[in-house]
Amino acid sequence: MTEFMENKIKVALVTGQSNQWHNWKVSSEALKLAVNGDGMFELDTFVTPAEGEDFAGFEPTWNDYDVILLDYEGDSWPEATKAAFEQYMQDGGGLVSYHATDNAFPDWVAFNEMIGVGGWGGRNEASGPKVRWRKGAVVFDDGPGEAMHPDPFEYLLETRTPDHPIMRDLPEAWLHAIDEQYSQLRGPAKNLTVLATTMAGPEIENGTGENEPMLMSIEYGKGRIFHTTLGHVGAADTETPLAMKCVGFLETLFRGLEWAATGEVTRPVPDDFPGADMPVVR
Ligand SMILES: [Zn+2]
Description:
- The chain is α/β, with parallel strands linked by helices.
- Helices cover 19% and strands 25% of the residues.
- It has a single domain, classed as 3-Layer(aba) Sandwich (Rossmann fold), CATH 3.40.50.
- The strands form two sheets. Strands 2-1-3-4-11-10-9-7-8 form a nine-stranded mixed beta sheet, sandwiched between helices.
- The chain is globular.
- The two termini are 17 Å apart.
């Protein structure tokens, strides 16, 4: 995409901790290589202190970036860093929440408004509703249920808001490479648009029988957020997994980054974007 070479979108990747189930070193390296390799973006990386270390100097220069790509679940940030991030988003910043980032910060009210819904970390009915897609519309479900996922498998993603810039011209459905399938995420779900869902079949263990939101957009102040639940990297993984090589994962990530940064998507849909019959990896 050489036409963007002169005016690249500035991305700050923030990473440095993950929970016991994930490996931020592998996922963040995969994100960095993919985003920098695309040609539309210029990415800087901010690595937080390790778990339990002093965060006093952790003050990313949010305003230097068009969009923040978060691959992080770990220690809380200093109040001043959180406040500066909230202000950046209120003023029209961009955020992409990648996979288990939506497990982070269960007690940070503004963060949960930004991501719309999240999982684990003690999130329950008090955190907000589950977001469902039933009979062609979003339904908020206040009933019980906490986040879970079946064992990784290939699953179908279905476009639900085809006129959203991120989804425009994408197929109605496509098969995603083997990955975790988050379900029962819950949160304030304010100003949230469901972009794509997947059916967590009731016949499989931890399947809910609901269309679970997997790609979402959220508005927070003047800011824009793209929330992708896709792209699991296990704690023992040492190489980029198929889930992150999946063209559906990569292209929706790139489109989400562009939209969160600019409010538009100018990227054409690539010829290798998958259909419903088989996943495609790069
Ligand atoms: Zn995961």
